[in-house]
Design goal:
The structure holds three protein chains of three kinds.
Chain A (H helix, E strand, L loop, with lengths): L1 H16 L22 E3 L9 H5 L5 E5 L5 E7 L8 H5 L5 E3 L14 E2 L1 H5 L9 H5 L3 H4 L11
Antiparallel strand pairs in A: 1-4, 2-3, 3-5
Chain B lengths: L6 H9 L3 H39 L15 H10 L11 H18 L17 H9 L1 H12 L3 H32 L4 H10 L1 E5 L2 E4 L2 H4 L1 H15 L10 H4 L9 H26 L10 H22 L5 H30 L2
Antiparallel strand pairs in B: 1-2
Chain C lengths: L20 H8 L3 E6 L4 E5 L4 H12 L3 E9 L3 E9 L7 E9 L4 E3 L8 H11 L3 E3 L32 H4 L16 E5 L11 E7 L2 E8 L7 H6 L20 H16 L5 H31 L4 H21 L8 E2 L2 E2 L7 H27 L2 H7 L7 H6 L4 H6 L6 H4 L20 H27 L23 E7 L4 E8 L5 E7 L1 H7 L1 H5 L4 H11 L3 H5 L1
Classes of the chains: A alpha+beta, B mainly alpha, C alpha+beta.
């Protein structure tokens, strides 16, 4: 009986202190860590069309079309299929593709979530956070030499 | 204090129509009034309040978007629920399936007829009012069984059977405990019970008269009754007939749209009816200082409602076999002990 | 240590306490056709018709009482089933039994009479690879639908052929499973796949006698996402790592990643810098706290019903852990934080702020746990619901390969963090929690007390990281960009996941992608013991027992 009363006292204490831990989401923008990985932003000006991101993508989310001279024509990325592993950003030698902290995207059908390069360019920054600033330190590890046979693909 | 005139008579006097027609009209008007008050409280404010109360216990915010304090969510919910498709499962036993929600909601509504709500709001005041309330309220378990059996679903069947087993096990302690109040008041008439509780003085503390509300006279019976009532209305720790995590939704698994609304309404009505019975038998009904009687009555009902929600947030559900055991081996024995003791004490002291 | 009597066996060990490989070969005698050396243990190739003999010899005479995993695979010339055996006493004592079968007739003897856990593991091997087990009591598909054609991990499988299921077959897949018949007194009830208390899409076929459970059979596979096959399609270095997060999304992501990292690092002989090990240890324990909070919350949800406060309180505290993990890894559940040879990022700058946040959380935790105890474990009704329900004897638990809090709730002192140390655990001061209750209440207590132990570990890690010299903060060792482990190398390594022993078996064929990637999911083995635990109980106890097992269906079905 004492245990039951204790339980009831605990919940009543929470009811009376008036604290809430949920937030009113659309009105109150949630705090997002600087490292958070959200929708991609792509810069055609920077891209050198090396296709490393396409190669490293674990589930073929990125599709790149180039012409015969290997000039880039299309850069498509399915933000609904993406698993947000950030390997494309990690592999990109020129920071042409970044993952912003923006986590909000909608579409009526899944096809609406296939972003082409223009859409990717227009993805807004989230709260003016620059993702690179918080993620720079690992860049060196990607081009590590290793002791074994080096293969730059 | 004289028993107040029942509401239909008051209305008839005021509208001034004589004869059978007038009587019928005033009866209808009175029933309409009380029905609407109760529906507004249960169907409209109940679900909203439940959300807010549960949210307070669980540190959340709950509805606050639609209208002030989210009150208009009730309208949105009503439209949403009523516009949903009514799905009747294949092989459902039609008349019973359709009747069950009406029986459940109707039984609770009917019982409100004899409850004195203060300020002369009482539809009828029969001499056997208490018996009437319990008789009508227990029809609800028939509704639950009908719904569970007719749904052609195994979960519903289990829920219906659990509901019946539980209601039988807890109805008896409930009635026996109520009988101890009757011993004290010497009347089954509800207005009389209220009047006697209010007019007898238990003690005077610092010049304030404490009335002999039965909850003060016999707290033990009060606790027994509140616990049995929790089981009667099927709320934690006794919500086994529904038990969403075990048997999905129990008897109401297959109900949708309007039927679901009726079921939901019926359950809320039953909680409020339970509150009304507790208020009448133990808390002096509509009596209270300063505020009008009806307001006190509503406050008392809501206090009981709050208590059920409080239990929901903190007390685990008991298993069905434990529930039956508590009912037959614990509550029943205790309630009879309470009855015998009350009778003995009353006999000795000659109150 | 354990409370029951250990069977008196002569362990064939050398003076250092390691397995004496030759003594085992002598013990098995003629059954051994050949010997191989796997990364984790010596492997004995045995005849397909002597599996039970070999396994029962190893179990009874050499003390290998834990059948950790059964990995089946197809080579160009043969099928192979590998039985990974361990000892509950000392899991570093391992031995593998390899059973080759010819491709045209892949039949080998079942191990089910020796180890009950082989029942499900062999069904999975049959389902995905196509090895058949002679004498198996119920050799049906387990993860894929009954109507599936072919075995997807086999070499002959045609991936492009659509699976056609006729309407007749698809009409009511549950009909045939209805046991009991028309005249019996029992009622067949499908609990799930869509049910409020199955923690995902689990289907429990239940036979009820009144309210009592006469028989129960968990039917899994509704969340099968070909995780093993996806891993076989990814490169070791990067592409596999994001997927382990999706097994136990409790979120035990970092522990899962660690299971893969440990196996792959073992396979390719990669060293991990000490600093990275500390970060790994810290983040893994954060994941464990998050998982245990979720388990506690949902377990109580099963017992209390909806609208209970404890679930939201557990979620609230889990939220804090997730925020810490988000700051560290960049995601709340799907971390992709570990890399082979280290972790991807150092502690976020400013470091002091992050450590401050961690300490705030750790300081508040004891008070919150006290509140939990007030709310749940001291509540008499909860005790009456959970004590002596879902009883699991230690012997039965071992037979079913139960690990993690389920095993420790039955008094089995088995924790890979201590017994098979990895990361930085052996340098830290913490205890393995066991309870002797063997029931749902014991498992609840184990989880709640393990939260305290994890908090202790995190605290020590934070201390270490704070004082770590600035010029020695190496987060990744030098690992070649394209990793090609030696051809034919194979190993099985496990870490202590939030649910128990999470093991990975990898065989390399010399390319940059694994030839066989097998996941030993702890929840898979734990769930197989459900029948043993809940037969004869009431339906509410079945639900509570399921909750106390803490299954994450993403991990069970993979």
């Amino acid at each position: 009986m004492i245990g039951i009363l204790k339980s009831m006292a605990t919940t009543m204490k929470h009811a009376l202190d008036g604290e809430t831990f949920t937030v009113e989401y659309p009105d109150e923008a949630p705090e997002v860590s600087p490292r958070f990985r959200g929708v991609h932003k792509f810069s055609q000006e920077r891209c050198i069309w090396c296709r490393q991101c396409e190669n490293v993508c674990p589930n073929d989310t990125i599709q790149i079309v180039t012409d015969k001279q290997r000039n880039g024509e299309q850069y498509n990325l399915h933000v609904g299929q993406c698993i947000y592993c950030r390997l494309c950003e990690e592999v990109c030698p020129v920071d042409a593709i970044l993952l912003t902290e923006n986590f909000e995207f909608t579409g009526d059908t899944k096809h609406d979530l296939v972003f082409n390069k223009e859409q990717l360019k227009n993805v807004p920054w989230y709260n003016d956070l620059d993702p690179l600033a918080s993620r720079e330190p690992d860049r060196g590890s990607w081009v590590g030499e290793g002791e074994g046979e080096v293969d730059y693909q | 204090m004289a028993t107040p005139t029942p509401l239909p008579d008051t209305i008839q006097r005021n509208i001034g129509v004589d004869g059978f027609g007038g009587e019928l009209l005033s009866m209808f008007l009175a029933a309409f009034l009380i029905g609407n008050i109760m529906l507004a409280m249960t169907g409209v404010a109940g679900p909203w309040a439940k959300r807010k109360i549960t949210a307070a216990f669980t540190d959340r915010i709950a509805v606050n978007r639609v209208g002030p304090f989210g009150l208009l969510i009730i309208v949105a919910d009503a439209v949403r629920l009523l516009s949903k498709e009514l799905i009747v499962p294949e092989g459902a036993d039609r008349p019973a399936f359709d009747l069950a929600p009406i029986v459940l909601a109707g039984s609770a509504m009917l019982a409100f007829a004899v409850i004195p709500m203060g300020n002369g709001i009482q539809l009828a005041d029969p001499e056997t009012g208490l018996v009437f309330v319990f008789a009508i309220a227990s029809i609800a378990s028939l509704g639950l069984l009908m719904g569970g059996y007719a749904s052609n679903n195994k979960y519903s069947l289990m829920g219906g059977l659990r509901a019946v087993a539980q209601n039988i096990a807890y109805e008896i302690p409930l009635v026996v405990t109520a009988a101890s109040v009757v011993l004290f008041t010497g009347s089954l008439q509800l207005s009389e019970i209220v009047a006697i509780q209010q007019n007898t003085t238990l003690a005077n503390v610092a010049g304030i008269r404490i009335p002999a509300w039965f909850a003060f006279v016999n707290p033990f019976a009060f606790v027994l009754f509140v616990v049995a009532n929790l089981a009667e209305v099927g709320r934690n720790p006794f919500d086994t007939p529904e038990a969403p995590t075990e048997i999905v939704g129990g008897y109401q698994t297959e109900y949708s749209s309007v039927y679901f609304v009726l079921f939901y309404l019926g359950e809320f009505l039953h909680i409020f009816l339970g509150g009304a019975i507790i208020a009448t038998l133990f808390l002096g009904g509509p009596a209270g200082p300063f505020l009008p009687g009806f307001v006190w009555f509503v406050i008392k009902i809501w206090a009981v409602f709050l208590f059920t929600q409080w239990c929901r947030s903190a007390v685990p559900r008991v298993r069905i076999d434990q529930l039956i055991e508590i009912g037959w081996k614990g509550m029943l024995v205790l309630s009879f002990a309470n009855l015998v003791l009350t009778a003995a004490i009353l006999g000795v002291t000659g109150l | 240590m354990s409370t029951y009597d250990e069977p008196e066996t002569q362990l064939p060990t050398t003076e250092d306490g390691d397995v004496d490989e030759d003594a085992i070969a002598d013990l098995l005698g003629d059954h051994v056709l050949d010997r191989e050396t796997h990364g984790n243990a010596e492997a004995y190739v045995v005849r397909a018709d002597a599996v039970q003999d070999v396994l029962s010899t190893l179990k009874d005479d050499a003390g290998f009482d834990h059948l950790s995993c059964v990995s089946a695979q197809e080579y160009d010339d043969r099928f192979e089933s590998i039985y990974h055996l361990k000892q509950y006493e000392d899991p570093t004592n391992e031995v593998s039994v390899v059973v080759p079968t010819p491709r045209d007739e892949p039949v080998s003897e079942t191990a089910e009479p020796v180890f009950r856990t082989a029942d499900w593991h062999e069904r999975e091997a049959y389902d995905l690879v196509g090895v058949q087990y002679d004498g198996h009591p119920n050799l049906e598909r387990i993860l894929l639908p009954d109507t599936w054609q072919g075995h997807p991990l086999g070499k002959d499988y045609n991936k492009d052929k659509p699976q056609i299921v006729t309407f007749e077959e698809n009409k009511n897949p549950l009909e045939d499973h209805a046991r009991g018949g028309e005249d019996s007194d029992t009622m067949f009830l499908n609990i799930g796949p869509h049910h409020p208390a199955t923690h995902g899409v689990l289907h429990v076929e239940t036979v009820l006698d009144g309210e009592q459970v006469a028989d129960v059979n968990p039917d899994i596979g509704y969340l099968h996402r070909c995780e093993e096959q996806m891993a076989e399609k990814g490169t070791y270095r990067y592409q596999i790592m994001p997927y382990p997060d999706r097994w136990d999304y409790g979120p035990g992501g970092i522990i899962n990643e660690w299971a893969y990292a440990r196996t792959a690092e073992d396979l390719a002989d990669i060293d991990v810098p000490e600093y990275a090990q500390v970060i790994r240890t810290m983040s893994a324990e954060m994941c464990r706290i998050a998982c245990h909070l979720l388990a506690t919350g949902t377990f109580c949800l099963d017992i209390y019903g909806d609208f209970t406060a404890i679930f939201m309180y557990a979620m609230r505290d889990r939220e804090i852990v997730q925020n810490l993990l988000e700051d560290l890894t960049g995601q709340r559940m799907m971390f992709n934080y570990l890399r082979l040879g280290g972790v991807v990022w150092d502690i976020p700058e400013p470091r002091e702020e992050y450590f401050e946040k961690c300490r705030d959380f750790l300081d508040d935790l004891p008070e919150k746990l006290d509140e939990y105890h007030d709310l749940i474990s001291e509540n008499e009704i909860l005790q009456s619901r959970t004590v002596d329900t879902g009883h699991l004897d230690p012997e039965i638990a071992k037979n079913y390969g139960a690990t993690g809090p389920v095993a420790r709730g039955s008094g089995i002192d088995y924790d890979l963090r201590r017994d098979d140390p990895y990361g930085y655990y052996d340098e830290l001061d913490w205890d393995v929690i066991t309870e002797d209750g063997c029931d749902n209440y014991a498992r609840l207590l184990v989880r709640m007390r393990e939260i305290e132990e994890s908090a202790r570990i995190i605290e020590q890690c934070v201390d270490l990281l704070e004082d770590w010299p600035e010029d020695d903060r190496e987060i990744q060792s030098n690992v070649p960009r394209t990793l090609k482990p030696d051809e034919g190398a194979e190993t099985y390594r496990a870490v202590e996941g939030a649910k128990g022993e999470l093991g990975i078996y990898i065989r390399s064929d010399g390319t940059e992608k694994p030839a066989r990637f097998k996941i030993r999911s702890p929840a898979f083995s734990n769930l197989s013991a459900l029948q043993e635990m809940s037969t004869g109980e009431y339906v509410p106890d079945l639900v509570a027992t399921l909750g106390s097992l803490d299954v994450i269906l993403g991990e069970v079905d993979r």
